[in-house]
Amino acid sequence: MEKIFVRNHMDSSQKRDPTLTRSTPISFLHLPRPVRDDIYKRLLVLRHPIYIFQEPNSPVESFAPDRSLQWLALLHTNRQIYTESSAALYGMNQFHLEDITPLQANLLRSFLDCIGPMNAALLSHLCVNFPVAERINGQAQKVELRTDSLQSVRLYQDKCTKLSTLETVVHYKNSSLFREPDAFLRDALSLIDERLRAIPSLHKIIVRFVDFNGIPTASAKEFMRELGWIVVPRNGIQS
């Protein structure tokens, strides 16, 4: 293991002894835990999101802008450092899933399987597709989450037990709900809120719009605010 060298603070009499003036190597794990935690935060907590993606028939990959390919090397030092540093990496970063299709549920499952249940339980901030709600068997007044959205919500409930912030993105492939009549929209948004509020740890729901074709309407924004959601239109100004 690499050593961290700390120079001793000595009085003038000690400095005359050449055997005491040399730097003393200490193990990283001999540092106090708060000091180690601060180092983990400085090295592993980013100002920008970590992007998660998966090519067909390939393992899950991540991309962290402005970071080298070796930026996670600290985690592979030993088991204790891995456990301690994982709390910072998974618990203090934002993870954005880069798939705007119904297959994002598969990406979420693959990501959670890849990092394992202990790390999945540390996640606090995820950015995902806005859930899709649709009429049940074409019945105008009955609405339910689409299968992939329901699967994702269940994964949040079962695996992400410390998830406190869920950031959702409305784009051209999942924005049709916001073009429905207000009555249906309110029913659908109420259902989505009910499903998401079933996640015990969840405190903040953010809805970010990247489809700007007339949505969200003023009435949609008002209702989302009533639900306690944070609405971020395309101009980036939260409301």
Features:
239 residues; alpha/beta
Task: Provide structural commentary.
This protein has 7 helices and 11 strands. The chain has 239 residues and is of the alpha/beta class. It has one domain. The chain has a 7-stranded mixed sheet. A two-stranded antiparallel sheet has the order 1-2. It has a two-stranded antiparallel ribbon with strand order 7-8. Helix 2 packs across helix 3 and helix 4 packs parallel to helix 5. The chain is elongated and about 75 Å long. The N terminus is likely disordered.
Concise structural overview:
With 239 residues, the protein is of the alpha/beta class. It contains 7 helices and 11 strands. It has helices spanning 12-15, 33-44, 79-92, 104-120, 147-159, 182-197, 218-226, and strands spanning 3-6, 24-27, 50-54, 60-63, 94-97, 125-129, 133-136, 139-145, 165-170, 204-209, 230-232.
